[in-house]
Amino acid sequence: MKIAALINNCGRTISMNESGLLLLYERQKDEQWIKIQQQKYSLENIIDAEQIRKSLKEHIRILSDCHNLLVKDGRTIYRMLFENAGYHIWRFDGPAKMVFEKIAEYDYLYHKKSKEIKIKAMTNYQPLEKDTGYYYMDIRKIMSDKGIHSSAVLMPFLKSGNFKTLELDCNHMPRWFNDILGPLHLKIQDQYTDSGILKIFITKSPARQNK
Prior knowledge:
Number of strands: 10
InterPro entries: Nase_Fe-Fe_AnfO
Protein name: Fe-only nitrogenase accessory protein AnfO
CATH superfamily of the largest domain: Dinitrogenase iron-molybdenum cofactor biosynthesis domain
Organism: Pectinatus cerevisiiphilus
Strand order of the largest sheet: 3-2-1-4-5
Oligomer: single chain
Largest sheet: 5 strands, mixed
């Protein structure tokens, strides 16, 4: 298991808009936490949103195979970039190493629950085939269920590519869609009905259709 931590020179956690070090730790078989990577971290005096995104994405790119980030605190724009990259943000004010084992424990329970939720989602929610290659699903109930994430339901289906068009009824556009359109070669069209329902139509781009 790996944990990334934002710290100062004394090993205490810092906020995501402060300067310090971004360290990557890995748990060994003897349950010791070893530092395997280190990089300077600074977002002080950067107020432009695009520059913040660019800087954070570079930090995320350098880190490898990690989904936990320990910080003192952080504004929404910082947290969202890491969360959209698959990170779980942990907040703690104090020496970072004090909470590594607790994070490991919670991480195990979190992934165990996530696996159970994924099984439940796959069992209870599936797109319906209305015509050959044309599927429909109302995900408004899923989006209002805090125990199930829409990506857990839709990603396996979207990755399979076994569809021409997927029509969705939504409350709003899922944020994670923008992260998967390019990699999965998908296109999206959307429109609101007179009753206020957001209709989303997902189709495969020509690049994927030819595969």
